[in-house]
Amino acid sequence: MKNLLSRRRSMLATSFLLVLTFAGAQVHAQTVQEPSPDSSTPVNTSDPYESWNRRVFSFNDAIDRWFLRPVAQAYRTVTPDIVDRGVTNFFNNLTEIRNFSNSLLQLKGESAVVAAGRFTYNTVFGLGGIFDVATAFELPERPEDFGQTLGYWGLGSGPYLMLPLLGPATPRYVTGMATDGFLLPSAWDEVDSPETYYLRGLQLVDRRADFIPAEQFISGDRYTFVRNAFLQRREFLINDGKIMKDPFADDDDFMLDDF
């Protein structure tokens, strides 16, 4: 019961990590004109709630502009690069248990071995994950989550959604996120409250700070940019790096290789 309560508290804190997570992707978006109510132009079925999504996006963007980004900018100013990288590596290492669990659920034995190896190397030889020694041993990260697991077994993503505070999502993505947070084993289970909240807050600021340098690549309509970045990123992960043609993108240079 205590572990379940701890997972629920951790999941609540995790929701804030998704605010504009994809605002730093290095992609180009095309400006989309929202159709008027009497327009004969059909609504794209992948984003049937665009009017609502845009309003929620404006709300999330305001929170980021007036609170999250200034804090992240201050963090970048006072934190040495080596410390910043160590913090990022530490939190990335905690996701390896999730990667391992979902690799097994997707019958990806090699990916499961890589995740286990990365967690062991980085925890033991990387001082708790502060140093990413596994990559130096030619064990690059293979991110896997339960949303990818659902996609692997044929469940469709559903319509695009922009959720308050949680940011861009789809029904499959939200279901996967909840399952990862509540049911699958996680290294976060070993962290007691209130330390969990302190670490989650640091993770949020660190992740947002890492995206600041890439903001210069944002162009066009910001809502479309975030939507395209999210959908292509999820497709990239679910298909293990094989991206199909994005239904929202009109040009061929819209790539997520560096995202």
UniProtKB/TrEMBL annotation:
<dbReference type="InterPro" id="IPR007428">
    <property type="entry name" value="MlaA"/>
</dbReference>
<protein>
    <recommendedName>
        <fullName>ABC transporter</fullName>
    </recommendedName>
</protein>
<feature type="signal peptide">
    <location>
        <begin position="1"/>
        <end position="29"/>
    </location>
</feature>
<dbReference type="GO" id="GO:0016020">
    <property type="term" value="C:membrane"/>
</dbReference>
<keyword id="KW-0732">Signal</keyword>
<dbReference type="Pfam" id="PF04333">
    <property type="entry name" value="MlaA"/>
</dbReference>
<dbReference type="GO" id="GO:0120010">
    <property type="term" value="P:intermembrane phospholipid transfer"/>
</dbReference>
<comment type="similarity">
    <text>Belongs to the MlaA family.</text>
</comment>
